[in-house]
Structures are given as C-alpha cells and as structure tokens.
Write a structure and sequence with these properties.
By secondary structure, the chain is an alpha+beta fold. The chain has three helices and four strands; from the N terminus they run H-E-E-H-H-E-E. A four-stranded antiparallel beta sheet has the order 1-2-4-3, with helices on one face.
Length: about 120
C-alpha cells in the first residue's frame, strides 16, 4: 500500500485515541483502523478498563459496563464521525458501535456515503 492509503487510517486511530483519553481519562490499549472497499471504515478499539468498570465487572455487573459504554458511544458518535469525515474526505452516512466485554474491545463501523454519481443498487 502507498503512504497515502495509510495516512487516513493512522489519523483516525490517533484521533480516536485522543478522544478516548479525553473522555474516559484512559486511552485505548490499541486501535486498528481499516478502510474496507470504498464504503466502510472499521475501527477495532482494544480498550483499557477504568477502575470503576473493573469493580463492576468483578461484581458481575458486566451489562452495566456495556450499557454505559454504549451510551457513551452514542453520545460521542458525532465526534467520531467528524474525525472519519476529515480523514477520508467523505461524508459518513451511518455509524454503528458495539462493545464486547471479555476481552474488552469496541468495534466502530462507519458507512461512507456513495461517491457523487455512484448509485447504490438494492438487491
């Protein structure tokens, strides 16, 4: 791959790391960002667990951790979308996030709007 192809993914990973640090008080352990085809950006975020989350997980309250993380992802979604749009120069038409508890990671998927003149065929 050329350096140009790596640049948007690196920018997205770096910015998402910064947002996690600013918002959770702890960054992500690792973020893998991939551009899939011409319509999707996929980020797999290996999260650090906060002290409060560890306490909840240890007491069997994993669903509370998951619910809180999902609420956060919904609230911060527009910020994540703006990062991806700046990095790839395209509008994001949809954002989906999912939290997995053991091991703790999130999947952030961004569906890019079709390129101008491109028509999406529904089958």
């Amino acid at each position: 791959m050329s350096e140009q192809q790596h640049e948007p993914t690196e920018l997205i990973s770096t910015e998402l790391e910064r947002i996690h640090q600013d918002s959770y008080g702890t960054g992500a352990h690792r973020i893998h960002t991939h551009i899939v085809g011409d319509r999707f950006v996929l980020c797999v975020v290996d999260n650090h667990v906060t002290v409060a989350e560890r306490t909840l997980l240890d007491s069997g309250q994993g669903e509370a951790v998951k619910a809180t993380r999902m609420a956060f992802q919904e609230a911060i979604g527009p910020t994540f979308i703006a990062v991806v749009e700046r990095a790839v120069g395209r509008r994001v038409e949809a954002f989906v996030s999912h939290v997995h508890l053991d091991p703790m990671f999130t999947v952030e998927m961004f569906r890019l709007a079709p390129l101008e003149g491109e028509h999406e065929e529904l089958e």
